Amino acid sequence: xxxxxxxxxxxxxxxxxxxxxxxxxxxxxxxxxxxxxxxxxxxxxxxxxxxxxxxxxxxxxxxxxxxxxxxxxxxxxxxxxxxxxxxxxxxxxxxxxxxxxxxxxxxxxxxxxxxxxxxxxxxxxxxxxxxxxxxxxxxxxxxxxxxxxxxxxxxxxxxxxxxxxxxxxxxxxxxxxxxxxxxxxxxxxxxxxxxxxxxxxxxxxxxxxxxxxxxxxxxxxxxxxxxxxxxxxxxxxxxxxxxxxxxxxxxxxxxxxxxxxxxxxxxxxxxxxxxxxxxxxxxxxxxxxxxxxxxxxxxxxxxxxxxx
Length: 308
Hints:
Blueprint: E1 5-6, E2 10-18, E3 22-29, E4 35-41, H1 47-61, E5 71-76, E6 82-87, E7 91-93, H2 94-101, H3 106-125, E8 138-141, E9 147-150, H4 155-160, H5 164-168, H6 182-185, H7 192-208, H8 218-227, H9 244-253, H10 264-274
Antiparallel strand pairs: 1-2, 2-3, 3-4, 4-6, 5-6, 7-8, 8-9
Helix pairs in contact: 3-7, 3-10, 7-9
């Protein structure tokens, strides 16, 4: 049998990308005639590792949302090669757009952020945590790059972890420092709240043109994530004009205490209210005020409608 055909169905063509944990191919689905993407994980010899990956992927497969990557099939070839067949995306990453344009116009940023939170809401409802929300994992598709696909839900971490002991070591961090929630830095496991924080960093970056917390090294960045106050939009140099409710949403997502961050569903509801009306402030009542924290645990986390 042709070694380029997996599962008697997918003919591997060009390599789309290769990393430390997997290779992704452009492939042809011989049953439908459609072009698809096939990801082939590397070093998937551990049965427990593989079982955990498949459980996560099946959870994601049950999610039906236009802004999540559609997984078509998980399988194993006759030669024992594991593979994941997915829809093929044509477009560029949000990172590529940010590098090209810098700060995005508010309507464009709002549209992208709304779709990201839509994807997170759908996946959180099914118990799937992304773990690594960042511009590199956001694909902009469509003729005008107006359709968002959030990719690699949990997949990268599960492929990276090679043993149960690695998963349970408290100081083994997986993620990108610039988008890593404070509780993740201190060793807590990922939760839906850590996804919200990362999406807040991404939203800030789109609106301002830089991330809220920087540094020269990963260690310095993570230290700033833990200790620095949330930047106020009005105090940036130069100041950035962002509708007040949108500023409030972003700042709530960036709160240091996970329990004080909003759910993806509540953020999505506010973003929908702002669609098509980004220059006019939404009613302040639309922003639910989260419980107040002591100054020792969080800074700049008061009423988001009053924050700049």
